[in-house]
Structures are given as structure tokens and as C-alpha cells.
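I am still learning, so would you mind making up any protein sequence you like and the C-alpha cells describing how it folds?
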Amino acid sequence: MTEKGILDQSRESEHGVVHMIAGRPVHLPKLDALDLASEPVVRFGAALDIINETHEAITKIKSDKVLSDFGKDQKLEPLREALIGRVASQIEEIDKFAEAVDRREAALLAVPKIEPQNAAEALVDRELRDWWKEQSSGVRMDLLQKMNEEPGHERLEIALLRSPYAQVDREVALAREAWNNAKRLENPAEAQAIAMWRNQNEWATRAFAHFPPITTILSELPRDRVLGVLLSHGKSNKTIQAFGFDSHTIERSKLLAKQRASSVGR
């Protein structure tokens, strides 16, 4: 990070921008100026600072000739656990950002729902789907193409997209594509914002993938301790999995923790 809190992109190579993470060079694609203030990039910078500052502190403690090995361990232990927890928190926030973008896009592309009391609307849906099935494949393909090229087919699209078999029907998938395109054209500002957030999140996903292994190595904690720290901080399964733990190991560890807590309380 720079003094102003903006990610430093001054070091470049043929492989991209060079970022130093705990003394290790990592190459990432260069970001546009507009992206530097985005939440994923700011959180990357925050996690980067956490790791590098902890790396510097650990190095300083280890090189202190006055401290005994016991004294060094006493100072290093809280740093190691805090490192895991703080980096995991930034990873978790990136996951939340991606989920928020998913919700915005789902709202943009949402198909109107039928109210439970509106039987007439459901009947129209069924009649339109029955009519659709009666058409030849050529007529249906021609209509699907027109859905992408011209307005006026929205009611038919809605009926098809509200079909119980919408998820497995290839023709309905094409109708969904036409619907999505139309909704993006209706609200281009929101569509462009979502596309921008998606790109920022893709960059962050690639960038953040470097943090768990480097953080684990820097902490010098055994794997079971790393898992214990993550669980004690209440991190989500997805965040814990980013550190290389599978769902079976996570659930088993949670169960053992509950059993230990139960036995202590007796």
C-alpha cells in the first residue's frame, strides 16, 4: 500500500504487477485507476498490510538477541493467532461482497412471481406453455431468435421461465438468455456496475488465493492449530476451506469441539 492507502502498482514485470507478500513476490494483473478504490482491492491491500506488518514483527522478535526462546514464543504466539484470524476476516468479507453482487444481479434479472391468490395468471402461463409445445421446432427457434432481437415477447418469456422444468429445458435456457439481455438493456447503469463488480471480484479471487498458504507458513502453526483458530473466530466453512480444509474435517472438528465443551460443563 502507499501512504495514501492506495494499492501500490509501481513495480511491474512481464508477468504483471509485483506485490511482495511476506517477502515473496506475487504477480497480479494491473488494475485500472477506477478499481483501486473498490472494496475487493481495498481489502486485498488491508490483508497485504496485515501479513507484511506481522512478517516484520515476527522477524524482529526472532532476531532479538536479548530474548530467550521462551520469551520469543510468548511474544510470537498472539501474533500468529491474530494473523490467521485477521486475514481470514478479510477473506470472509470478499465472500460477502461476491454474495452481495449475486443478489444485485438476481434482482436485476428476476422473473415476476405469481401471487398465490392469482389463479388466472397461472392459467395464462399454462396456456402459453401448451401453445409453445404445439409449435414446430422451427417456429420455436424462430421465436427464440426474435426474443433476442425485438420486444413484444415478454409475456411468453415469463410463462416459459416460470415453467417447473425451466432449469433443464434447453429452449427455456435460450429464453432466459433473451430475458437477461433485455433486463440489462432496461437498466444499463446497474448492469454495467454489476459487470464491474464481477471483474473486481475475479481479480480479488485470484489475488486472495495467495494469502492462506503464505499466512499459514508465516504463522508456523500446525494445521490443527490453524483450524482451531479459524473455528474459534467463528469463520464460515467457505472461509475455512480457503485454508485447505475439506468439509468433512471442518464438521468433524466442530463436533469434537462441542463434545469437549459438553464434557467440561458436566
